[in-house]
Design a protein that fits this description.
By secondary structure, this protein is mainly alpha-helical. Helices cover about 60% and strands about 10% of the residues. Strands 3-4-5 form a 3-stranded antiparallel β-sheet, covered by helices on one side.
Length: about 270
């Protein structure tokens, strides 16, 4: 008991001595509370292009915290939407969550709270094309969770949404996953193919259309269904975007296959 009390007093003194110094005060301005483990937040702001290595050869960057924050955001935003839209159906909640956690939204929040001034990354990469800001925001959410626990993390995310996004307006906006996927393909110079599959019927006998999305070498990255060809393309594109966002290994494989396909095409032309 006395040991725990001593630790609490020691922590209070340490925070009192440091709270007016960087990086405590900077983090306080963003988070609304003083952090216990500043090193976690420093890791959250370190992009993989600027990784450092520990004595035991462990790479330190924000990818692990980004992974954690990505899952937490999905969970917390789902929780918020569930509470605030008690009469909404599952489809509305799923689409609304996708709108809130899409990269452009997270990039926007990150810029508004000043993360662009804190992120460490190599000047060799383009911060505009790689969603560095949104990724760092996800890593920040992960750091808050590890440092303070779920309840504090939930309140932080909820405050970010309330202060920097118009949730009611966002949920009413239509999101075009196909356009977003094609835009990604154009930026990354990856060809995207939407293939119509054989139609089927639902339980009531209504015709269901199916779409599969492929990239270089025929790799399938998304499938979807709907009651029209156009409608089936949207869930397929959403699946593809989610996979591309969350699976770094898949992205590397696609880039490599696209490069091989282009080289083979050039060889055929010779």
């Amino acid at each position: 008991m006395f040991r725990k009390l001593f630790q609490q007093i020691n922590r209070s003194i340490r925070l009192l001595l440091n709270k007016r110094k960087e990086p405590y005060f900077t983090l306080y301005q963003i988070l609304g509370f003083y952090p216990d483990r500043v090193a976690l937040y420093e890791e959250a702001f370190r992009h993989s292009s600027a990784s450092i290595w520990t004595a035991d050869r462990r790479s330190v960057n924000n990818e692990r915290l980004e992974f954690l924050g990505d899952g937490l955001l999905d969970c917390i935003v789902a929780d918020i939407l569930y509470r605030r839209f008690p009469d909404a159906q599952e489809g509305f909640l799923t689409i609304s969550r996708s709108k809130v956690v899409q990269r452009d939204m997270l990039d926007n929040i990150a810029l508004q709270i000043g993360l662009d001034q804190l992120i460490i990354f190599s000047p060799k990469i383009s911060n505009h094309n790689n969603h560095i800001y949104g990724n760092a925001f996800e890593a920040l959410v992960g750091a808050v969770y590890v440092d303070k626990g779920y309840q504090v993390c939930f309140k932080f995310v909820e405050r970010m949404i309330d202060e920097h996004l118009n949730l009611s307006e966002i949920t009413q906006q239509e999101i075009n996953f196909k356009s977003s996927l094609l835009e990604w393909g154009q930026k990354q110079r990856v060809e995207i193919f939407f293939d119509a599959l054989e139609p089927t019927a639902d339980a009531e006998g209504k015709q269901l259309f199916h779409t599969a999305i492929h990239v270089a070498n025929g790799r399938e990255i998304g499938v979807g269904e709907g009651y029209s060809k156009k409608e089936s393309q949207q869930p397929a594109a959403q699946m593809a975007l989610n996979r591309l966002r969350n699976d770094k290994r898949l992205r590397k494989q696609i880039y490599a296959e696209q490069k091989e396909a282009k080289q083979a095409k050039l060889n055929d032309q010779k």
